[in-house]
What we know:
The protein has helices at residues 3-12, 28-39, 52-57, 77-93, 111-117, 119-128, 177-182, 197-209, 223-226, 233-242, 268-272, 283-305; strands at residues 44-49, 69-72, 104-110, 133-138, 188-192, 214-219, 249-252, 255-258. It is α/β, with parallel strands linked by helices. The protein has a single domain, classed as 3-Layer(aba) Sandwich (Rossmann fold), CATH 3.40.50.970.
Amino acid sequence: MDLSVYASRCVETPEKFSQGHRGCVGCGEVLALRQVFKAVGRDTIVINATGCMEIIASTFPTTTWEIPWIHTLFENTAAVASGIETAYKVMKRKGIYPKDLSVKFLALGGDGATADIGLQALSGAMERGHNFLYVCFDNEAYMNTGVQRSGATPYGASTTTSPAGKTIGQVTWKKNMPAIAIAHNIPYVATANPAYPFDLMEKVKKGQAVEGPAYIHIYSPCPTGWRCPPDLSIRYGRYATESCVFPLFEYENGKYTLNKDIEKPIPVSTYLKGQGRFRHLAEQDVAYIQNHVNNDWAALKKRCQE
Ligand SMILES: Cc1ncc(C[n+]2csc(CCOP(=O)(O)OP(=O)(O)O)c2C)c(N)n1
Ligand code: SF4
């Protein structure tokens, strides 16, 4: 089936993630998670790193997960996914599971779990070529424990461990996780954004369908940590892509594709404005960030044209 037709049908699909979770009002991460769940099949085992999505959906004695789900550590999420996927293959080979059984493996982690603490396990799993999809929900800090900076926090953002004051806030540039995944030569890598739900769901479907590791990096607006109004999560999602701060692209078997070309990017200042984490930035800081975004965007466009 044409994947865009598939994605539009997905919208109607009740996701296997029930109502009544404890996410903050306007949480873009839980919205992204629900979209992911609309695209994955029932026969999926979820391996979930500790983080916001685990905390808000599994407070004992309740659970929001309606498909098999295992909570694991930051450090070893991809290693646990590797072990489960390998055990499944062995069970099939030994005839314990029927040959036509088709189970998928979905590992979920925040940016802290992915770009920092679980990076080694993820790298190993991608290198070994396990058949699984890893989704990183990037809200650009360790949110669940109180907005500490991560390697994916953008330059200039104020967090509790990179407070604006003596320094500009976060003094390093955001770690480029999609590029790190691509460097492992895996069959599928993509970026996605819940402000573009059809694109997101198509990518999840593709990521689950490929043989081997797939990695999807999802922009996840967090009104609590970003100090912005909860009704603007989708607007910030759109601004992020329209300003080229968070471009939407895919890398499939060695080829880059731009999924949303932006002919006239909006100024980065439009994206930064209104977010409390950036409110201390001076004009020259914004110009510095704009220049960085322009360079990254030009480099990505070039790769997509090659
Ligand atoms: C090794 C280790 N360090 C710290 C913690 C405490 N901890 C639990 S969740 C969390 C933050 C998670 O951040 P992230 O992965 O970005 O996900 P988010 O909560 O932002 O969705 C931290 C620091 C932990 N559980 N294990
Ligand atoms: S802290 Fe942020 S990511 Fe976590 S549940 Fe609240 S809005 Fe969502």
